[in-house]
């Protein structure tokens, strides 16, 4: 590794440092900054020209004495050491240990700036992943290699839901190694402790690698963290043949850090002040998930996006929706009613669900049951709106049946305990209990065979 060192820093603002007379510096190169007290800071070149280089300093530029600051260009991108020993470990946003244990020593080093999987090498996402959560497994099923974000909002229990998915996610009927890469960006200390204790207490921590950037950690580190986490996931999936679930929380904090850095370096703002390249930047992250031909492993991605002001049309959830394959939307109304997890079924969607359910994956009636539940719940919501206008006592017997179904659906199917891990068979049986509130002739989206086998006519 060659390295060049300069003492030509001319300005520092926030996390940005400008160094002049540093020719032949490449975008993305790593930098070591040594201050007047001989303390080292890490940085990365984010813009370079013949005259000067602009450096993001992960630890910030506070207290730097520019005249006595040495800047060393390492002529290499950000890389991390990888080995099977990363499982059970906790790291910061650039892959340095946060658990007071030694760093990973390995001959395997990977550039974190990986690229999206080549479309020609991709194979279609298939195979059902059981999360143990009925509203996801039954109606918005997650399949191996999919990108399925959770759209939430401030004050909603997305952290608890993400932790539950990490604890419970498994492949049905396959004795294969399933690992989790958990990446938290801009979270509070309390949230970080919550995740660590949840995983430790449930016994899954040994199969989880955690990357954590706290709210008071450098925003610049937030930009590296998802790339570091996905590099680890790719290693576990495509070199160790594991099935890997990646949970990224919270992508809104990532996008705000991107906006902060883009503004500081003078990029032209677009919608809501975010840089015009927000879409391509998010795509660069999300498209690293998937499956590759002739490889056993896979990377499945569940990003958490908190919608500012509960606005699903905000640029971050809006652009995320374009790139990913569906969304799980959390509802403030259900949360206020005490329903956990407060998954709002109507706008939620898994576009690849059809490829992971059915006879060989879950159960033969699953696709039809999901369609029937959606249809009955949509009708029940219409009836609920009508009841709010004219009063429930004015409804017909048929409409009151829909109202009763909606209440049972919210409390029994959507609602479940935080430690309740339902198998897909339990979820489908529960769905039939609810559908059995209706006579057979009202259930038009399931087959006669389904009705004969699963409908409880005594209801």
TrEMBL record:
InterPro entries: ATP-synt_VA_C, ATPase_F1/V1/A1_a/bsu_N, ATPase_F1/V1/A1_a/bsu_nucl-bd, P-loop_NTPase, V-ATPase_su_B/beta. The keyword Ion transport applies. GO terms for molecular function: ATP binding; hydrolase activity; proton-transporting ATP synthase activity, rotational mechanism. SUPFAM superfamilies: C-terminal domain of alpha and beta subunits of F1 ATP synthase, P-loop containing nucleoside triphosphate hydrolases. Pfam families: ATP-synt_ab, ATP-synt_ab_N, ATP-synt_VA_C. Residues 10-73 form the ATPase F1/V1/A1 complex alpha/beta subunit N-terminal domain. Residues 132-350 form the ATPase F1/V1/A1 complex alpha/beta subunit nucleotide-binding domain. Signal peptide: none annotated. Keywords: ATP synthesis, Hydrogen ion transport, Hydrolase, Ion transport, Transport. It comes from the Bacteria. Belongs to the ATPase alpha/beta chains family. T3SS ATPase subfamily. Produces ATP from ADP in the presence of a proton gradient across the membrane. The V-type beta chain is a regulatory subunit. This is V-type ATP synthase beta chain. It comes from Sedimenticola thiotaurini.
